[in-house]
Design goal:
The complex is a heterodimer of chains A (155) and B (202).
Chain A lengths: L1 H20 L2 E4 L1 H8 L6 E7 L4 H16 L5 E7 L7 H10 L4 E4 L8 H4 L6 E2 L1 E6 L2 E6 L5 H8 L1
Parallel strand pairs in A: 1-4, 2-3, 3-4
Antiparallel strand pairs in A: 2-6, 6-7
Helix pairs in contact in A: 3-6
Chain B lengths: L1 H20 L7 E2 L4 E2 L5 E2 L9 E7 L10 H11 L6 E5 L11 H10 L6 E3 L4 H6 L3 E2 L1 E8 L2 E8 L15 H10 L13 E3 L6
Parallel strand pairs in B: 4-5, 5-6
Antiparallel strand pairs in B: 1-9, 2-3, 4-8, 7-10, 8-9
The chains are: A alpha/beta (155), B alpha+beta (202).
C-alpha cells in the first residue's frame, strides 16, 4: 500500500515537472533571434526578465493583462528569462503562478556578446522590453512598462 | 499636418530623454566623494594619496549577480592595490526597496565575505548618479590625469558571472594592466546583466 502511494507521488512529481519544463525553451541568442525577427505580420513584444529581479516580477501582471488583450490578434508576447539554466525552480513557480506562455531561457554566459544586438544603448538592466514589427526594431524600453503603453505601441 | 508636427515634437522629446538616460559614461571626470565605510570611517578618493587609479564597483547585497563576485573583488584588490590601483565597492541601491542593502546588513556582508576593500554606503545615491552607474555589479576604472579622475572603463568585471572558472576575458583587470603599462585600452565598455539601481524620486 505504502509502495503504491510512493509510486503515485513520484508519478505526479514527474508529470508536473514535465508539464512545466515544456513551458520553458532553453536556447542560444541566435536561435532566439530566429524566433522574433521575421518578416511576418506578427508584432513581437519581447520582455527580458529574471525570477530574481524584483521590478520584473512586479510588472508581470501588466503583461498578463496585455496577453489577454492581444488574444486572437497578430501580436505575440514572448518572455526571455535571464535566469541560470541550472537554477530554474523560482522561474517555474512564476510561470505557473501567472500561467505565462512563450517563455524562453537565454543560454548565454557573456551578455556583452548579445546586448548590443538588441539595443546598443542598453547597459543590461532588467526589466527591458523590445517591440519588433516586420523584423525591425520598433521600440525599446530599458525599464518597467505599463499595460497602457504596451497596448498603445502595438495597436 | 498638425498631427505630424506634434508627433515629431514628441519624437524629439523622447530622443532627448533617451539620450540622457543612456549618456556616455567614459572619459567623464569624477567628483571626489565622502562616504561611510562599513567600519564607520569616512572614505574619499583623496584618502588614498598614492593612488594612480581606482577600480570602483557599484554593487549591493541583494542582487544575485552581485553575489557572484565578492571573491573576485578580493582578488582584484589583492592584485592591484599594491600597484597603486585600489578597489572600492559602493552600494547605492534604494534601501526602502531592499532591506538586505541597509547599512547594518552591509557590515554583516563585508565581514562574512572578508572584504579586503572599503564597502561604502551611498545613501543619497549621489555617487552612483555622478558615475551614471545603472546596475549592480557595474565596474569602473578611473585614472588620474591632470589632477582629475577620468573614467577609462565601465561595464562588466569579466565575461562570465555564473562560472568563474570559465572566464576568458577579465575586462577590469585588462583595462588596469593596459593603463599601468601606458597602452591603449582595447575594451573600454562592456555590457552585462545586472540589477537596476532604482533612483529614488525626490
Amino acid at each position: 500500500m505504502v509502495k503504491n502511494w510512493v509510486f503515485f507521488l513520484v508519478l505526479i512529481a514527474v508529470i508536473n515537472k514535465n508539464i512545466y519544463s515544456q513551458n520553458i525553451q532553453i536556447l542560444k541568442f541566435d536561435a532566439l533571434k530566429q524566433c522574433i525577427y521575421n518578416n511576418s505580420d506578427t508584432v513581437y513584444v519581447v520582455n527580458f526578465f529574471a525570477s530574481w529581479c524584483k521590478p520584473c516580477i512586479q510588472e508581470i501582471p501588466e503583461f498578463v493583462k496585455f496577453a489577454s488583450a492581444i488574444k486572437n490578434s497578430k501580436t505575440k508576447l514572448v518572455f526571455v528569462s535571464l535566469d541560470s539554466k541550472n537554477d530554474q525552480e523560482k522561474l517555474l513557480k512564476i510561470i505557473q503562478q501567472y500561467s505565462l506562455q512563450n517563455v524562453y531561457l537565454l543560454d548565454e554566459t557573456n551578455a556583452n556578446n548579445w546586448i548590443n544586438k538588441i539595443n546598443k544603448h542598453w547597459s543590461g538592466t532588467i526589466p527591458a522590453t523590445l517591440i519588433i514589427k516586420k523584423g525591425k526594431h520598433k521600440k525599446f524600453f530599458a525599464n518597467v512598462i505599463s499595460y497602457k503603453t504596451l497596448f498603445k505601441l502595438t495597436k | 499636418m498638425k498631427n505630424t508636427k506634434s508627433s515629431s515634437i514628441l519624437w524629439i522629446a523622447l530622443l532627448i530623454i533617451s539620450t540622457n538616460a543612456f549618456a556616455q559614461k567614459n572619459n567623464k571626470d569624477i567628483v571626489d566623494f565622502k562616504l561611510k565605510n562599513v567600519d564607520e570611517k569616512i572614505v574619499s578618493l583623496s584618502s588614498f594619496t598614492d593612488a594612480k587609479g581606482f577600480i570602483i564597483v557599484f554593487t549591493c547585497n541583494h542582487c544575485p549577480f552581485a553575489k557572484l563576485y565578492p571573491p573576485r573583488l578580493n582578488d582584484l584588490n589583492n592584485k592591484f592595490k599594491p600597484l597603486g590601483v585600489p578597489l572600492i565597492a559602493i552600494s547605492s541601491t534604494d534601501t526602502m526597496m531592499y532591506e538586505e542593502d541597509t547599512y547594518p546588513n552591509m557590515v554583516i556582508k563585508a565581514n562574512e565575505e572578508h572584504f579586503n576593500f572599503p564597502y561604502l554606503f551611498d545613501e543619497m545615491q549621489v555617487v552612483a548618479k555622478n558615475f551614471k552607474a545603472q546596475k549592480t555589479p557595474h565596474a569602473y576604472v578611473i585614472w588620474k590625469e591632470n589632477e582629475k579622475w577620468i573614467v577609462k572603463y565601465n561595464g562588466a568585471i569579466d565575461d562570465n558571472g555564473m562560472e568563474p572558472e570559465k572566464v576568458t576575458e577579465t575586462y577590469v583587470s585588462n583595462a588596469v594592466n593596459e593603463l599601468l603599462t601606458n597602452q591603449p585600452i582595447k575594451t573600454s565598455e562592456t555590457k552585462s546583466i545586472g540589477c537596476q539601481i532604482a533612483f529614488r524620486r525626490k
